[in-house]
Amino acid sequence: MKIAIIGGGLTGLTTALFLTKTGFECTVYESAPQLNEIGAGIWLQPNAMQIMKYLGLQERIITSGCRLERIDIGRPDLTSVKDIKNKTVIDEFGNKTVAIHRGRLQQILYEEFSKVGSIELGMPYKNHEIAQDRILVEFETKRIEVNALLGADGIHSSVRDLLFPEAKLRDAGQVCWRGVSSFQLPADLQNLGRELWGDKIRFGFSQISNNQVYWFAVTRRKDFPKAMSVSQLADLFSGFDAVVSEIILHTNGIHRAELKDLKRLPSWHRSGVCLMGDAAHATTPNMGQGACQGMEDAYYLSFFLKNKPSVNDAFMAFESFRRKKVDYVVNNSWLFGKMVHHPLGQTIMKVILKSTPERIIKKQTQHLYEVKSPALTV
Ligand SMILES: Cc1cc2nc3c(=O)[nH]c(=O)nc-3n(C[C@H](O)[C@H](O)[C@H](O)COP(=O)(O)OP(=O)(O)OC[C@H]3O[C@@H](n4cnc5c(N)ncnc54)[C@H](O)[C@@H]3O)c2cc1C
Q1: Residues 6+ apart with CB under 8 A from 252
Q2: Residue scoring higher pLDDT (99 or 223)
Q3: 238, 314, 336, 350 - which has most CB atoms within 10 Å?
């Protein structure tokens, strides 16, 4: 069976790796002429690290990034809203969150896949047609025929536009500013992820290598609608612990992203074509789970394609298996973002966090981090 994957992002590459290891012939078609993930970091939580373990990439990712004991929610002065124990936020296999440069992570996946499969860069998908049991896929410069088409082309997916033209993005009214700073955190912060909540602004950071700190700042768009310089952003966070301004001031380039998610689609697939990752269920980044969920998609979809009698049966099983968890992430992430940037909402969140017993937090994180059987052996 021939499979085409549109998009060489974290979802597309992880899917390609699982599919080839499972025995499928698959090619990735990526619109960008070269893979150039923006200069920011990413937090891969235990569920994603378990998926990476199945691919044999866990150690390489840990040594290329920074293993975090936990991610703490704190106040601007760095004190924690609640002291959560490290063991509460590891999964049943001992996986912890790993913070890594996005470009480095994508390069690892790309290099691994290049050993076993083919990725065509500079190949933007244009269109597809169904012809009996085959799919004719059209790019700018060529046409191909495949048995299954996977749309892993991100939040602005063109494959989705063709399948579900009525799909809509939901605007959170918030802006995320991100950067990588040439900086080393004080020793007591080096193995932690921190997210500090201020008055309608928040700031998160962690070490991603010995001399690099990844950071993000979230503001309401109506307060700061346009581009901000390094010094303007540092001024905005001048009321926070001095380490925050230090991190910002050691940054070269700032990336600005308006936060959006995707309104729940009626379905993820149609006639041999299936969406995955952000193309199917883009979430706001407040739970740090977007890419983790795309990686889970990769793992489960490969399993169902191998074990179901037809492509469409596999897509149906995949969607029904994945919907509940993905809906949980998208909805809670949306709510989280709204609450933290609202004065009363933030107070409520802090009360809830402080009063929730550790064992309940453990249960919630285990639910989020669980990578369920059916186990896929590759
Ligand atoms: C501010 C911010 C912080 C985040 N932090 C985290 C985090 O800490 N942890 C986490 O798990 N998630 C995080 N996320 C979410 C995460 O970035 C996304 O969920 C993830 O990158 C989605 O991967 P994807 O491969 O599905 O889509 P994308 O990364 O968007 O990749 C899609 C790929 O498809 C290509 N493409 C697009 N159109 C076409 C076309 N027509 N033809 C061919 N190729 C095409 C694109 O060039 C791209 O390479 C964050 C998101 C944001 C915005």
Answers
A1: 39, 179, 180, 182
A2: 99
A3: 314
Has residue 369 been placed in a domain?
no
Q: How many domains does the chain have?
A: 1
Query: Whose alpha carbon is nearest atom 1 of ligand 1?
Result: 176
For every residue of 228-273, DSSP letters joined together read --HHHHHHHTTTS-HHHHHHHHTBS--EEEEEEEEPPPS-SEETTE
User: How many angstroms is it from 155 CA to the middle of ligand 1?
Assistant: 7
Q: Point out which residues pair with 137 in neighbouring strands.
A: 128, 144
Residue 119 belongs to domain spanning? 2-39+101-169+261-342
pLDDT in tens, 6-22: 999 999 999 999 999 99
| SS3 state of residue 64 | helix
Under the banding of pLDDT at 50, 70 and 90, the label for residue 374 is low
For residue 358, is it within any domain?
no
Atom of ligand 1 nearest to the CA of 43: 8
Please calculate the CA angle 121-209-230 and round it to the nearest 5 degrees: 80
**373 pLDDT tier (thresholds 50, 70, 90):** low
pLDDT tens profile 186-216: 999 999 999 999 999 999 999 999 999 999 9
Tell which residue, 309, 310, 316, 306, has the closest CA to residue 374: 306
- For residue 293, the ligand 1 atom closest to its alpha carbon is 11
Q: What percent of the chain stands above pLDDT 70?
A: 98
Q: Which atom of ligand 1 is nearest to the CA of 158?
A: 41
User: Does the CB atom of residue 135 touch ligand 1 within 6 A?
Assistant: no
- For ligand 1, the distance from its centroid to the CA atom of residue 111, given in whole angstroms, is 18
Strand, helix or coil for residue 284:
coil
Give DSSP secondary structure letters for 119-131: EESS--EEEEEEE
The residues facing 190 across adjacent strands are none
Residue 88: what pLDDT?
83
Q: What is the CATH number of the domain that holds 265?
A: 3.50.50.60
pTM over 0.70: yes
